[in-house]
Write a structure and sequence with these properties.
The protein is of the alpha/beta class and 297 residues long. The chain has two domains: 209 residues, Rossmann fold (3-Layer(aba) Sandwich), CATH 3.40.50; 69 residues, 2-Layer Sandwich (Alpha-Beta Plaits). It is 22% helix and 25% strand. It has six helices and 18 strands. A hairpin with a 2-residue loop joins strand 12 and strand 13. The chain starts with a strand and ends in an 8-residue tail after the last strand. The N terminus and C terminus are likely disordered.
């Protein structure tokens, strides 16, 4: 059984062990795998691999994917942490790496993109595909027609996947999901997976995901041999959390409770605030077990 644990946190209200419950600023409450018994009391930044989801984790959602905003302070903190981790900081996203480069320009950080379909292991380096196939053009065309259901349904072609966003038409969620399911049912010969998300439905082929992408990343320098710390918020991030303990690492959910994550950030603003404290802290304290949950405020 997992044990109750605490992790030092820098500011009041950043962390909670479940939605709706805020813990005192000096403690983070969560569940830590027994594999963390091998961790030292403090993990220095040069021993960590920081793996960070983008939308809903680092960045607040916007009406459309192109409207998300990267605060200048976040760019600065990511650049600083990239240096302090010896280059072992990577963005992990369903977006293509080329899209990430536009968002975070002039930074071109290590990244896992396209839900694991592509990877870049060093800053400003080449993007290496995983060998995953792009989505069938016939299927893309039929899925794109779902946008005809009504205004506010946006199409995002990521090459390896196609996403249908309905954040601007929240009442159309059921209709979009039903239409996507019906279309995918007409392609039984394709190994398709449908990824539900926050106001989005995404379709890609099986055989790769963020977990396989992270696994590839952790096999190569400068990430190999590091203890991964992963932050993510959505359904597509859930596959990563169970893989971290094998590498002596752990993960934190953002915006909601995820059973396989060790704890919970209230939202992207809290994540950005925490990241901003790490350069001065120089590392992360090992979670300490405690007999009682942290006191709520």
């Amino acid at each position: 059984m997992p044990t109750e644990a605490r992790l030092h946190a820098p500011r009041k209200g950043i962390f909670s062990d479940r939605p709706g419950r805020t813990l005192r600023s000096e403690h983070f409450s969560g569940r830590i795998s027994s594999m963390t018994d091998t961790l030292p009391d403090r993990i220095a930044l040069d021993e960590l691999a920081l793996l960070l989801d983008i939308d809903g984790t680092l960045l607040d959602f916007a009406p459309t994917p192109r409207e998300v905003w990267v605060p200048p302070s976040l760019r600065k903190d990511l650049e600083t942490l990239h240096g302090m981790t010896g280059g072992a900081l990577a963005l992990v996203s369903g977006r293509a790496i080329a899209d990430l480069d536009l968002l975070f320009a002039p930074l071109a950080l290590p990244a896992v993109g396209g839900h694991g379909a592509e990877m870049r292991v060093v800053r400003d380096g080449a993007v290496a595909p995983s060998g995953a196939a792009t989505l069938d053009l016939r299927l893309k065309r039929e899925l794109a027609a779902v946008a005809e259901l009504g205004p506010g349904i946006l199409i995002e072609d990521k090459g390896y996947s196609l996403a249908l966003h309905y954040r601007l038409a929240p009442d159309m969620g059921d209709a979009v999901r039903d239409a996507v399911a019906a279309i995918c049912g007409r392609f039984p010969e394709l190994p398709i997976v449908v990824l539900p998300g926050k106001s989005v439905v995404e379709v890609k082929l099986t055989g790769f995901d963020k977990a396989t992408g992270v696994a590839r990343l952790l096999k190569v320098a400068p990430f190999a041999g590091r203890r991964p710390v992963f932050l993510g918020d959505d359904v597509t991030d859930e596959c990563v959390f169970p893989t971290l303990a094998a590498h002596g690492g752990f993960g934190f959910a953002v915006g909601r409770h995820i059973d396989t994550a060790e704890g919970y950030f209230s939202g992207p603003a809290a994540v950005r605030e925490w990241l901003g404290t790490l350069p001065a802290a120089g590392g992360i304290d090992r979670p300490k077990t405690t007999a009682a949950p942290a006191e709520s405020v």
